[in-house]
Design goal:
By secondary structure, this protein is mainly alpha-helical. The chain is 76% helix and 5% strand.
């Protein structure tokens, strides 16, 4: 059914490919008129964009230059008139500013006096600010003293509460440790009990069933042996009774009797109604021996099964007694059989489950109380540290308060000494100085700017006069160039039959758009050619094939593969494993930090080790193998450029990456991708003709790679010995085209073959003839 399914999928793929290509052909035919019209428009756009528009752009640019020059001349003329007026105004301003020079000197003396007293003003301001800051510090110190007293009282009360809580919880860690040991022992014993009840009991039943089956088989085999033995005894007796008849049945007068020697036989013995031959007797003996052997084998198998069951039950009894006699159960097992022990084990299992649940509840409660104890101790230590810190802060505040009083007295004395200054503070003095400086800067700045403005106006007036002269000369040259460009543009428009510039500009577009249109047209033509080739091949491939219901075949295959039976353990065993694993997980988590640190260190060492050893994620790879694989990839890429056209775009080779890390670990295993099915397969599955194409492509790829990678070394000759007999006519033609293309690339290609159609397609030949005197050759240059 799997083979049918694969064949059906192949048939359906060919038919669906044919339908898709037919639909594509219809769509391409519908688009053909549109593409033709687009191609005509594209030719006009190319002419407008590449031949006429550059002239138009040059003329427009030159016309723009003429207009810009005229605008500049007008602007420069207006600007010259303004500059002449400014020069007169700036001369008047300069004379007015120079009349205030004496006033500026008096202001400068006032500024120097304030500058000399600046340090005294700064010292006075610092004293006043310091006194204000010291007063604020005294207020803060008083508030801090009040807050410290309140915090100290609260912390002492909380410390007493924590002492009482710690005293009441000190025994809880020991209780928790004992409860954990008890729970662990309960779970271990429960696991042993469940192993007996859930696994060993089932195994006992299975072995008992096996014993019963083998005993029944022994009874049947022994019954057949008894029957065969009785049949043999009866056959021997029958043969003895009919021996005389057997000897006499062929007697004739004149022939001596084998018993008495007489030649006359008046009353020969006859065979009784029930008779048997020696051959038939031998068959009875053989059957009796075979049945005896089968009976002996069945007896042995039944004995082995019985001993195995007995030994297993003995082990179960021993294990059951050990569980029941454990100190947690302390049950009496004297003179009790296995079935009685199993009944008590089931009761013990229930009892242990209850104890385990109670232990888990108790452990949870003790865990919370132990956490409370730990938190209380941490908080008590923190409060103790905070009380010590408060005492240190008190001492610091006392020292700070004394220093504040000393600094206050020193600043008050300094202020009395500085009371004779002209202004009350530095800010007022700076304001007076700034106002005086501003007036001084205005007077001096006005003199300077007026002089600079008058000088700049004179220079600008001289410069603009020179610029106007240059612009007038350039305007004449630009107008002449504009007229020449306009004549060339009109001539080009008439040459390409454009009615006007507007018609031409409407067709102008950018190179990217032209390229996109050309690519779209070429893509359409390529698609038409590809569709035609693929449709012919698809019609051949789909010829004689019919659609098959693949889903029905898949359902049948799935039904045949669905016969799988999984063994499951019971819910109680799973719960026991979960609890056991939880305990193990807890132990693992307790060592997590050390494990993570070691794992991190191991990760670094492992990476370094793999780097040193040259080991990849898939397997070990040496430098030589890595270089071989990389070089082989280049050869395969070059080979695929030959194989794809030779196989009509069906096959493409690639190196199997999965081989890395396998036992062989060759790194050079090949597989092919079948683009018709979208799947990959080994190269060994290719047909003879397909294998020849692949081999030829690899040889050509090796030649190309060596020529490109070996520093100028060329492989100018290639000889192909036979192999063409495996190719059909179409494949032969495609392969010959590839080889012919190599000759146009300055390569010598030699083909050794006996196929007449191949010989007829090669003009230059060396013909070898075999004669009794030896081989002769003849060279045909094809001229």
């Amino acid at each position: 059914n799997k083979e049918k399914l694969a064949q059906a999928e192949t048939n359906n793929a060919f038919i669906q490919r044919l339908k898709a290509l037919q639909t594509e052909q219809k769509e391409l035919s519908e688009r053909a008129p549109e593409i033709k019209a687009t191609e005509a428009v594209l030719d006009r756009q190319k002419t407008a964009s590449r031949e006429v528009n550059p002239l138009y752009v040059s003329w427009a640019k030159k016309a723009s230059e003429v207009s810009a020059t005229e605008d500049q001349i007008t602007a420069k003329t207006t600007e010259k008139e303004k500059l002449e007026k400014q020069a007169v105004r700036f001369d008047e301003q300069l004379k007015a500013a120079e009349s205030r020079s004496d006033e500026a000197e008096e202001i400068k003396k006032k500024i120097l006096k304030i500058t000399e007293d600046e340090k005294q003003y700064e010292k006075k301001d610092l004293c006043e600010k310091s006194l204000k800051a010291l007063a604020e510090d005294r207020k803060k110190i008083a508030k801090e003293e009040i807050m410290l007293k309140e915090n100290e009282k609260k912390l002492k009360n909380r410390s007493e509460e924590l002492k009482k809580s710690i005293a009441s919880l000190e025994e809880k860690p020991l209780e928790k440790e004992n409860a954990a040991i008890f729970g662990k022992e309960c779970r271990r014993l429960s696991s042993d009990v469940k192993t007996i009840l859930d696994i060993q009991v089932k195994e006992r039943i299975k072995r008992a069933g096996d014993l019963k089956a083998k005993q029944e088989a022994y009874k049947a085999a022994y019954s057949e042996y008894e029957t065969a033995r009785n049949e043999l005894a009866h056959a021997e007796k029958t043969l003895e009774c009919c021996r005389a008849g057997i000897l006499a049945k062929d007697l004739k007068d004149g022939t001596k009797c084998p018993v008495c020697g007489s030649e006359h036989h008046p009353e020969p013995a006859v065979l009784p109604d029930e008779s048997i031959t020696e051959e038939e007797l031998e068959a009875f003996k053989t059957r009796e021996i075979e049945n005896h052997n089968r009976s002996s084998e069945a007896a042995t198998a039944a004995g082995v099964a019985k001993n195995a069951l007995s030994e297993y039950e003995s082990q179960m009894t021993k294990a059951s007694r050990e569980c029941l006699e454990h100190e947690l159960l302390n049950a009496s097992t004297d003179d009790k059989e296995l079935d009685e022990l199993l009944v008590e084990l089931r009761s013990a299992d229930t009892y242990l489950s209850v104890k385990i649940r109670e232990n888990m509840i108790l452990l949870d409660s003790l865990e919370k109380e132990c956490k409370l104890l730990s938190d209380s101790r941490s908080e008590f230590d923190e409060i103790t540290n905070r009380l010590d810190s408060i005492n240190s802060v008190k001492e610091a505040l006392t020292e700070k308060k004394s220093a504040n009083e000393s600094l206050t007295v020193a600043n008050q004395t300094t202020l009395k000494e500085l009371s004779s200054l002209s202004y009350p503070d530095k800010k007022t003095a700076e304001q007076e100085k700034a106002a005086a400086q501003k007036t001084y800067d205005e007077i001096t700045g006005l003199i300077k700017t007026s002089a600079e403005a008058k000088n700049n106006a004179d220079q600008d007036l001289k410069a603009i006069s020179g610029e106007l002269k240059v612009l007038l000369e350039a305007l004449q040259t630009q107008k002449k160039d504009e007229k020449d460009l306009l004549d060339s543009l009109n001539a080009k428009l008439a040459e390409h039959k454009f009615a006007s510039c507007e018609e031409m500009l409407a067709l102008v577009t950018d190179e990217e758009t032209l390229t996109q249109m050309e690519n779209a047209i070429n893509k359409f033509k390529t698609a038409q050619a590809t569709n035609k080739t693929q449709l012919e091949q698809a019609e051949k491939d789909a010829s004689g094939r019919i659609l098959v219901d693949v889903d029905e075949l898949k359902t049948l295959c799935e039904a045949q593969e669905a016969e799988v039976t999984d063994l499951r353990t019971s819910e109680n065993v799973l719960k026991n494993r979960i609890m056991t694993n939880a305990e193990k997980k807890k132990n693992i988590d307790s060592q997590r930090n050390g494990f993570d640190s070691s794992r991190h260190e191991f990760s670094i060492c492992e990476k370094l080790y793999k780097l040193v050893r040259g080991t990849t994620s898939n397997g070990k790879i040496t430098l030589e193998q890595y270089i071989q694989a990389a070089g082989f990839d280049g050869i395969i890429a070059a080979a695929n450029r030959r194989l794809l056209p030779m196989s009509d775009q069906q096959f493409e080779m690639r190196r199997k990456k999965e081989s890395i890390g396998h036992k062989s670990n060759t790194f050079l295993d090949l597989e092919v991708i079948d683009h018709y099915t979208g799947k990959s397969r080994p190269v060994g599955n290719l047909s003879g003709g397909e294998s020849f194409k692949a081999s030829l492509s690899l040889a050509l790829g090796l030649s190309d790679t060596v020529s490109s990678n070996q520093g100028g070394v060329r492989m100018d000759a290639l000889f192909v010995d036979e192999g063409f007999g495996t190719l059909d006519q179409k494949s032969l033609e495609t392969t010959l085209e590839v080889l012919t293309g190599l000759t146009s690339a300055n390569k010598l290609v030699g083909v050794i073959s006996h196929r007449q159609e191949l010989i007829a397609g090669i003009p230059q030949q060396i013909r070898v003839e075999k004669t009794p005197d030896g081989s002769n050759f003849k060279v045909d240059l094809g001229i």
